[in-house]
Amino acid sequence: MVINPKKDNKRGFFQRLFGKPVTQPPQDAGCWSYSNGTVVIELDKVPELAHAGGAIRLEGGNLPVKVLIIHGDDGNYHVFRNSCTHGKRCLDPVPGAGTVQCCSVGKSTFDYSGKVLRGGAKDNIVVYPVKVEEGRLRVQLNET
């Protein structure tokens, strides 16, 4: 997979100015649960993640942090704390680039390992380990 850190999400100035993310919560709010530091997502209830480039954001309930889950361009699932290290705005995947990008004007861009590629961010973003087991994604949110 080729990473293109210069590719941007196509969004309007005001969408970036107000930090409005493109990625939406899942259509089926009952597709996920959180307990004891682990998020479990039932993949058969999340058509948004069925194909590479798909993404959802999870927040609220008893979830301690906002989370971005993407089905990456590389075919793997990637999970991030949904907070840019430059201004705390939400993140969105950049289709066809192998990256995620802050929804603000600064366009901080990160690779799937969380490493800063460009923009105002000076620190990497948090990446959570994910496993696919029996049609479920299991994401460990405990940070060490």
User: Which strand order spans the largest sheet, edge to edge or round the barrel?
Assistant: 1-2-12-11
Alpha-beta classification: mainly beta
Please give the alpha-carbon distance between the first and last residues. 29 Å
Specify the CATH architecture: 3-layer Sandwich
Q: What is the global morphology?
A: globular
Overall average pLDDT = 86
**Main β-sheet: number of strands, strand sense, barrel status?**
4 strands, antiparallel
SS field, number of helical segments = 1
Cα Rg: 14 Å
What pattern of helices and strands is seen along the backbone?
HEEEEEEEEEEEE
CATH superfamily: Rieske [2Fe-2S] iron-sulphur domain
Helix content: under 10%
Total separate domains: 1
CATH class: Mainly Beta
Low-confidence stretches: none
Number of strands: 12
CATH topology value: Rieske Iron-sulfur Protein
Q: Give the amount of beta strand, in percent.
A: 25-35%
